[in-house]
Amino acid sequence: MSFLTAMQERYTTKKYDNTKKIDSEKIAELKEILRLSPSSINSQPWKFTFVSDTKTKKKFAEASFFNAPKITQCDTLVVFSRIDNIDAFEKQINNNLPEGAVGYYNNFLKDKPANEIKSWFSDQTYLALGVFLSACGVMNIDATPMEGIEPEKYNAILNDKNYTTLVGVCIGYRDKNDGNMPAKNPKSRLALDEVINSI
Ligand SMILES: Cc1cc2nc3c(=O)[nH]c(=O)nc-3n(C[C@H](O)[C@H](O)[C@H](O)COP(=O)(O)O)c2cc1C
């Protein structure tokens, strides 16, 4: 499948077939794809939690408003978190990154207000979200990115004070009656000349 075809055919799944499971090899592949996501200076200020246990998924569903049925029906919920402890982040890059990368952070980011540094962490993590959704498209796995969740409740379930939740993603296989698939609900986007400049 070409990447363009994958982008045309992928869509935000609203209804899952809860009898269909994702092969464990494919889940392992998705984990490795996330690990390989690019980030500024290779900062990797993120954590990705795969939740397939039914009881735990139910707890997340209860903290997810209108998205709850997708979480209970899908195969796996993936929670995207960014690091929230700047000291822990600095320790991580000092231990793992070359001098030049740490120097970039020290010169251009370290002295900024904490909320700006954390926003930069979020930017990197959303990039991984884009990689993940694209990979799912290529692998014929259906997905639902969800900001319609309660991050504080997610944090309480995950119980890792160094990280905070940004977004959840359901993955699995569509119910054949899902009305949101492109064949039933064609993709809606701004026109090419409204979003692309060629100079
Ligand atoms: C960061 C992000 C958060 C989103 N949050 C939700 C959500 O909480 N629930 C939902 O059903 N769709 C959610 N969406 C899906 C978008 O509405 C959808 O991607 C957009 O309308 C384009 O449609 P498509 O993904 O089917 O091409 C979200 C998408 C993104 C990228």
TrEMBL record:
UniProt KW keywords: NADP, Oxidoreductase
Keyword Membrane recorded: no
GO terms for MF: oxidoreductase activity
The UniProt record lists the keyword Oxidoreductase: yes
Residue ranges occupied by any Nitroreductase domain in the UniProt entry: 8-173
Family the UniProt entry places it in: Belongs to the nitroreductase family.
Protein name as catalogued: Nitroreductase family protein
Source organism (scientific name): Polaribacter cellanae
